[in-house]
Amino acid sequence: MRFSEIPGQASVKKLLVQSVQRQHVAHAQLFRGAEGSAALALALAYATFLNCEARGPEATDSCGQCASCQKIAKLIHPDLNFILPVTTTKQVSKDAVSSKFAADWRSFVLENPYQGLNDWMQHIGADNKQGSISKEESLQLLRLVSLKAFEGQFKIVIIWLPELMHPAAANAVLKLLEEPPAATVFLLVSYAPEQLLPTIVSRVQPVVVRAFAENEITEYLRDQYHVPEVKARQLAQVADGNLGAALAAREATSDNDYFAFFAEWMRHCYSYKVDKLLAQSDEFQKMGRENQKEFLQYALGLLRKVLLFGIDPQFVPHLPAAEQQFINGFSRFVTLRNADPLTREINDAHYHIERNANPRMTFVDASLRVASYLKMAS
To answer: Which of 17-21, 218-222, 297-301 has the lowest mean pLDDT?
Structure first.
């Protein structure tokens, strides 16, 4: 991964390049960005730049040709290490640690470095399980950093989603940040930095990664994937800064039609068809926990569009025809009066699902409450 391969982010790229040029490379850096941002891609590009063998004093990007760049591009450099949230699967039935998923991680990132946790869990076949960075990972990490760099100037450890660390793993990382090994750089890539230990946050240099602009996503889809301009623009508008979501939507199938499920859900809620809601709760349960969480996040985003459309349709232009028809009709029932409780209810459902609540019961309870809030607009 090179800086030139990442759309936009000029100011962050300049900051990272200058830290190397001025020899002010912080031993621990926190790439803070929303899911679907360039946080992981920038960390990879920075790692490539740090160990580029042809990097001159005035270089602004890695060469992409030297042995180090070639190895990092394939994610096989011995001095590039990853700590990831994982869980047991059919292939790894016990002692799940990052090193056992190295091949899966390579294929996942090389396919698309803008994906999120749910995508990763689906990729490794986690089914309904949630990923975490376990306490066993801390032992692996301590062994990892005890070794000197094999080939590069720096040993680089990328911790993806450190907010999912078990307390024991978090404490091990904290100790390493307090007493950093020589020539070792820790790059933490977080989508929810507020969930990290304050003591960890205080010991890392922040790298704030903004969401992608609409035109950046549009141009990337058009130039890299040859998506027609009009479709690329529509995907960019719906993605709301999430390049991973835009890329997924580009190849989306009907297997996971969150829009159709949401529209049906709201119709059943408004008409108070309890039998239909009970039947739909069974469908919700079959989704699997990570998909359930993703659907509820999607529902929150769509509710926001419905509210904005009701205020002024120009706030959400270029909607797909099916969505526009539904949003146009549904916007009469989502107003400033009930938008907050509706949002809060779906947020609460997401919270409970994330903490392993019974999906069917959570969905039914949320449905009945949503039904009562929709009546407020009648």
So the answer is: 297-301
Length of the chain: 378
Q: Which helix (H) or strand (E) holds 288?
A: none
Query: 287: part of which helix (H) or strand (E)?
Result: none
Beginning with the edge strand found earlier in the chain, give each strand of the sheet holding 28-32 in spatial order.
80-83, 155-160, 184-190, 28-32, 205-208
User: Would you state the structure tokens that stand for residue 202, as one six-digit string?
Assistant: 């205080």
CA 171, 174, 175, 176 torsion-angle sign: positive
Asked if residue 155 lies in contact with residue 77, where contact means CB atoms within 8 angstroms, the answer is no
Identify whether the C-beta of residue 337 lies closer than 8 Å to the C-beta of residue 375: no
- DSSP-derived secondary structure letter, 4: G
Residue 261, sorted as left (phi over 0), alpha (psi -120 to 50) or beta, turns out to be alpha
Please count the other Cβ atoms lying within 10 Å of the Cβ belonging to residue 10.
9
Reported as a single tens digit per residue, the pLDDT across 185-225 is 999 999 999 999 999 999 999 999 999 988 899 999 999 99
Amino acid identity for residue 320 in this structure: P
Place of tokens 């990831």: 84
CA nearest to 268, candidates 365, 188, 370: 370
Amino acid of residue 103 = A
Contacts of 143 (CB under 8 A, 6+ apart): none
Radius of gyration of the chain, Cα coordinates, nearest whole angstrom = 22
Residue 243 CA from chain centroid, whole number? 10
Which structure tokens are listed for 337?
């009066």
Q: Is 376 helix (H, G, I), strand (E, B) or coil?
A: coil
Q: What is the pTM of this model?
A: 0.71
Residue spans of alpha helices (H) in 287-337: 289-311, 321-330
Give pLDDT, residue 150.
Answer: 85
**What would the two tokens of residue 110 be?**
């090389």
Contact indicator for 37, 114 with CB cutoff of 8 Å = yes
- Rounded Cα–Cα distance for residues 252 and 260 (Å): 13
- Residues 305, 327: contact at Cβ < 8 Å? yes
Query: Which residue matches tokens 């100011």?
Result: 11
**Dihedrals φ, ψ of 316, to 5°?**
-135, 70
